[in-house]
Amino acid sequence: MSNYILFNLFLSPQLFSEIKRVLAYPKFSFNQDEIDEFLSIIIETAQIVEPEFSINLILQDSIDNRVLECAVMADCEFIISGDKHLLEIKEFSNIRILFPDEFLNLFLDDF
Questions:
Q1: What's residue 106's pLDDT?
Q2: What's the whole-model pTM score?
């Protein structure tokens, strides 16, 4: 019997725009072809959701609220992030917010 875990990537149009913006930061040194290829993979892989409400819980960084909106709309169980504002919340609307290694440790024990 093999064990597997199914992961889904959910994005809203606002989060996709944020990804495009961040990938262009000089600190990443991505050229336009690399950015285009990555965005193409995201478009093929992600499920796009359109939040029908606004959340304004995190005042320090409004894009973090877009993450919460997307996760709620997609009925996610987890948000996996390194973002300190999200991680401070720990849970929102029954969605656990975990650092990547915390999330992996939850599932590695099962294998």
A1: 86
A2: 0.87
